[in-house]
Structure formats: structure tokens, C-alpha cells
Amino acid sequence: MSIRATTTVASAALIALVAVGSAFAADPIETRKKTMKAIGGSFGGVLVKMVKGEVPYDAAAAKAAATTLSQTAAGIDIATLFPAGSDKGGDTEALPKIWSDAAGFKAAMDAMKAATAAQVANSDQGVDKLKVAVAEIGKTCKSCHDGYRAQKP
Ligand code: HEC
User: Fold this and answer.
1) How far is the CA of 31 from the centre of ligand 1 (A)?
2) How far is the CA of 11 from the centre of ligand 1 (A)?
3) Average pLDDT over residues 112-125
4) 17-29, pLDDT tens digit by residue?
5) Contact 49, 71 (CB under 8 A)
6) Distance of alpha carbon 35 from alpha carbon 81, whole angstroms
7) 47 pLDDT more than 70
8) What CA–CA distances, in Å, run from 35 to 12, 133, 137?
9) Of 145, 84, 85, whose CA–CA distance to 112 is shortest?
């Protein structure tokens, strides 16, 4: 292979790598924000509103939202949504502690997964039980956000 051909092949490979690299860098931030927004939609947008009486309690709708919430939470894969280095390269509130304290972050994520799964059973048993569900789930959102998310003012 001539020097020129080798250089061309090397440049093409480099361009491909850069393209793949930037696609990965931009994607997990947007994807995790969308996922968190969906979680917020089920939790804050439906369950909390029912508890506050802002929308009337409806057992079937509460169960549907709680089920969606638990499924969305269960689907979160930390390695995919929070790959190392993705505290930078986009508009993100993720704190570096997610990676420096990976075990703590995973424990916080597992706590949300467990609480959302367990509390589906409390969602369609009346508003008092839904209050318990919202409190138990809400604790797990807060404990992760307090340590691992920079809240914007
Ligand atoms: C294990 C950690 C963890 C748990 C548990 C968690 N979050 Fe988050 N959440 C984050 C992080 C980190 C961000 C910032 C993501 C970013 O900006 O890249 C975030 C961002 C958000 C956002 C803002 C999304 C946006 O539009 O930028 C909402 C809304 C949200 N979370 C709701 C919730 C709710 C509701 C719960 C509980 C049901 C919850 N989160 C549980 C870590 C967590």
C-alpha cells in the first residue's frame, strides 16, 4: 500500500471514530434526561397530583402510572445512561460523584427500582395507600438527587 493510500485509510478510520465518539457523548445525556422526564411525568405528573387532590384519585389511572413508573425505572441501565465521562459534553446536571462513588449511585438506583416495584401494590388501594407509595418512592428520588444531581436554581 502506498503512503498516500495508508494515510487516506487512516484518516477515514479517524473520522469514523470521531463520529462514533461524538454520537455516544451526546446521546446518553439526552437519553437519561428523557428517561428522568418520563419518570417525573408518572410520579410528579400523576401520582403526586392525586395525593395532593389536584386531580381526582382514580385507582386504575394510579395503577397504570405506578406500573409505567416501575417499568421505566427497571429499564435503567447505568452503564448505558451514565457512561464514564458523560458528566461533560452536554447540558447535564449529573455530578462527578456518580462515577467517583459508583457503588453508592448504584445503590440509590436500586433503591428506586425496588421502591417503585413494591409500591405498585399500594397504588390502587385508595388514596391513603397511594400517599404511602408516593412517600416511599419520593424518598428514593430525593436521596439520589441530593447526592448526585446538581439542582438548577
Ligand atoms: C440513582 C439516582 C437517581 C434516582 C433514584 C432518581 N434520579 Fe432523577 N435524576 C438523576 C440525575 C443524575 C439527574 C440529572 C441528569 C442529567 O442532567 O444528565 C436527574 C434528573 C431528573 C429530572 C430532570 C430531567 C431533565 O429534564 O433534565 C427529573 C424530572 C427527575 N430526575 C425526576 C426523578 C424522579 C421523580 C425520581 C424518583 C421517582 C428520580 N428522578 C429518581 C438521578 C436520579
Assistant:
1) 12
2) 39
3) 98
4) 444 444 444 489 9
5) no
6) 9
7) yes
8) 34, 20, 16
9) 145
Q: Is the C-beta atom of 70 inside 6 A of ligand 1? A: no
The residue whose grid cell reads 421502591 is 115
| Ligand 1 atom nearest residue 95's Cα | 12
**145 CA from centroid of ligand 1 (Å):** 6
C-beta separation of 11 from 19 below 8 A: no
State the pLDDT at residue 27: 86
Lowest mean pLDDT among 7-11, 15-19, 61-65, 96-100: 15-19
Please determine, for residue 16, whether its predicted confidence score (pLDDT) is greater than 70: no
Report the alpha-carbon angle 149-152-153, nearest 5: 140
Instruction: Sort 50 into a burial class: Cβ within 10 Å, 0-12 / 13-18 / 19+.
Output: buried
Mean pLDDT across the chain: 89
Write the burial class of residue 123 (CB in 10 Å: 0-12 exposed, 13-18 middle, 19+ buried).
buried
How far does residue 39's CA lie from ligand 1's centre (Å)?
Answer: 8
